[in-house]
Amino acid sequence: MKYDDTAAECCETHMTHPDKIRRTEEMMPSNDEVCDLSELFKVFGDQTRIKILFVLFGSEMCVCDIADVLNMTQSAISHQLRILKHSRLVKSRKDGKTVIYSLADSHVRSIIDQGFEHIKE
Question: With contact defined as beta carbons under 8 Å apart, do 66 and 53 qualify?
Fold first, then answer.
């Protein structure tokens, strides 16, 4: 991804547009919502967590299988799954002595798909 390193252009005069400002302020999320969204996007900032989500696109899996697919230790995968679960991006269920992980809902795939679409533009 390339960035234009020239400075952003600014208005030559200071003139506000009260109607636009009011409409924008009305649609802005609360500070708590912005904080929560920011925290969610931080979770996507780790390559291992992204890979785990891609693995779970295919099917639900236990930690052992995810670790095998990604050629990582169960401990490393477990740590990342704990973060993903805390962020409500994955869920788990017990099957005897095995814990099976899956995507929490269809929104998770949508978020990744949208990001993937964006980087391919």
Answer: no
Query: Can you tell me the mean pLDDT for 89-95?
Result: 95
pLDDT for 15 equals 85
Q: How far is Cα 121 from Cα 117, in angstroms, rounded to an integer? A: 7
What is the DSSP-derived secondary structure letter of residue 104? S
Which one is the CATH code of 47-120: 3.40.350.10, 3.30.470.30, 3.30.930.10, 1.10.10.10? Answer: 1.10.10.10
Task: Quote the crossing angle between the two packed helices 47-58 and 74-86, to the nearest 10°.
Answer: 90
Q: With helix as H, strand as E and coil as C, how does 38-76 read?
A: HHHHHHCCCHHHHHHHHHHHHCCEEHHHHHHHHCCCHHH
Asked whether the predicted pLDDT for residue 71 surpasses 70, the reply is yes
